[in-house]
Amino acid sequence: GEDVEQSLFLSVREGDSSVINCTYTDSSSTYLYWYKQEPGAGLQLLTYIFSNMDMKQDQRLTVLLNKKDKHLSLRIADTQTGDSAIYFCAVKRSGSARQLTFGSGTQLTVLP
Amino acid sequence: NAGVTQTPKFRILKIGQSMTLQCTQDMNHNYMYWYRQDPGMGLKLIYYSVGAGITDKGEVPNGYNVSRSTTEDFPLRLELAAPSQTSVYFCASREGGGERYSNQPQHFGDGTRLSIL
How far apart are CA B61 and CA A59, in angstroms? Predict the structure, then answer.
């Protein structure tokens, strides 16, 4: 089955860029998502990218996809303290109602 | 604009007790999901449903049961609570019904934090 991996922790200074990385194993993955989880809350969709795209930009967020290496990254520009949260990578295979396989999440801490 | 609503938010159970975690959505979504989230782990799929009257097992269904009598509601039942079921439980829903909905994201509730002692 699909395996999705992320590093557990990342710390950055306020105003710097954050890059959160994710690797996956199933080359038939079609949609790749980034979710944000704040303390005590559910998961909030940040952005997603379709597998035929290399890059997607949405305001401060940039998603890069390297299909050859099965590597996905989320870059947050000008990181703010409000960006401190857990970020989950999730991947979906085409035609699968069971849908998403989640990574373990990366805890982003933004230091003042 | 409720979205996905889960109740209760917190619960402590004794070993062997039973309870039902409630989930309701007001977006008329066909697909609904139950996940559990353990510390330092991603979400694991317990059960899912593609429509009223249809349910199927996910990765970790043992010890749980679900039903889907209406589009809106997807309750999760624990019959004999065990300490291994201490976790945070998330319900999610999305539009579904064909490949054209494949890119639709899942919408999550705020979770139920369950402790079994």
Answer: 39
